[in-house]
Write a structure and sequence with these properties.
This protein is an alpha/beta fold. It has 12 helices and 14 strands. Bound molecules: pyridoxal-5'-phosphate (PLP). This is DegT/DnrJ/EryC1/StrS family aminotransferase.
Length: about 375
């Protein structure tokens, strides 16, 4: 097959004059009385976009998740039910508080937390459920919220790659008690590093806000701190870039969904390939279009990924189950997550890809299988 010189990147942003103008404005004017102008505007714009009352922009989503865990009061002795299939930040932010993770399996069709696995994992110590809108596909929120209501558990949504995803017409991140998104460079809207917490709960917001700014209240004079807090707030320069991207979010979302449709057209009929496709009532961002090599396919997943790389196509293998990492003391059998870990691939969906690039990726995959 004809080689391409173009790097087919796994992810990467679309940067226009708007981003350059906003960042330039922040560099030139974002000081003195304007020192947090873009951060404030980003928080307002983002909250409006997802339909949340409150937003706090952070240096990264990991910090937003940590704030969420701390603000709902997680502590040593508590347990949180969490999907086993995610980037490790999802679990570590729980561990930061001293609470333990109880890892459960995923739905084979969406790779999000399987509600059928939750009940068996609940103990008297369970305080919350942490779900992930995996690769931009909404988790099964009705079922999860129903169980949370029944057992009086709080729900944290890790919506890192899911800016713009919807469940029954409502933006994800606002369906639980608190939601967190990422602006890291491979996400839907980027600022290099960046994150944001959203909530409709005033108490969670107030605690998170205090924790994010060193517990500072000025209640007993300037620089007074009332509690052990963190320096987690997002700077103005970063916010300027995130804000420009958020003003283009529909365009960026449409491109991701277009890229997915190019994959689906070409791969839907390939025997033994399962394409993760949005379920009814769900709008996926398709941040990372993903496939599973089913049993009938003999090709080795890691070999497929490395052969694609030789063709300048940069895909990603499925996440290792977080429960296997050394910091997790307990071990969990989660067979679906184990299968996706071994046989899953996320395909390139950088914003600069054209239909002809996707065509090249799909022809390469078919050849390698
Ligand atoms: C599901 C998930 N949660 C959390 C994070 C952490 O985001 P950040 O890199 O902004 O801290 C990521 C980042 O890739 C992620 O994919």
């Amino acid at each position: 097959m004809k080689e391409t010189k173009k790097r087919i990147s796994f992810a990467g942003p679309s940067i226009t004059q708007k981003e350059i103008d906003y960042v330039t404005d922040a560099v030139k004017n974002g000081w003195y009385e304007n020192y947090d102008k873009h951060t404030q505007k980003l928080e307002k714009t983002f909250a409006q976009y997802v339909g949340a009352k409150y937003a706090i922009a952070t240096h990264c989503c990991t910090q937003a998740l940590h704030l969420a865990c701390a603000a709902i009061g997680l502590k040593k002795g508590d347990e949180v039910i969490v999907t086993d299939f995610s980037w490790v930040a999802t679990a570590y932010c729980i561990f930061y508080t001293g609470a333990q993770c109880v890892f459960v399996d995923i739905d084979p069709d969406t790779w999000t937390l399987d509600p059928a696995c939750i009940r068996a994992a609940i103990t008297p110590k369970t305080k919350a459920i942490m779900l992930v809108h995996t690769f931009g596909h909404p988790a099964a929120m009705d079922e999860i919220r129903e169980i949370a209501r029944e057992y009086e558990l709080l729900v944290i949504e890790d919506a890192a790659p899911a800016i713009g995803a919807e469940y029954k017409g409502q933006k994800v991140g606002t369906l639980g008690d608190v939601g967190c998104f990422s602006f890291q460079g491979a996400k839907m809207t980027v600022s290099g590093e960046g994150g944001i917490l959203v909530t409709n709960d005033e108490g969670i917001y107030n605690r998170a806000k205090l924790l994010a700014s060193m517990g500072r209240t000025d209640s007993q004079g300037t620089f007074w701190s009332d509690m052990l807090g963190y320096q987690y707030t997002m700077g103005n320069l970063t916010a300027a870039l995130a804000l420009a991207q958020m003003e283009r979010v529909e365009e960026l979302l449409a491109k991701k969904r277009k890229i997915f449709s190019w994959y689906a057209q070409r791969l839907n009929t390939v025997q033994g390939l399962k394409i993760i496709t949005e379920k009814p009532d769900c709008k996926s961002t398709y941040c990372y279009p993903s496939i599973l090599l089913e049993e009938s396919i003999l090709a080795d997943r890691d070999q497929v990924v490395s052969e694609l790389k030789k063709r300048n196509i940069h895909s990603r293998p499925g996440f290792p189950r977080m429960s296997r990492f050394p910091v997790c003391e307990a071990r969990f059998e989660n067979p679906v997550a184990a299968l996706v870990e071994k046989r899953g691939i996320s395909l390139p969906s950088a914003a600069n890809l054209e239909e002809s690039d996707i065509d090249y990726v799909c022809r390469s995959i078919q050849e390698l299988l």
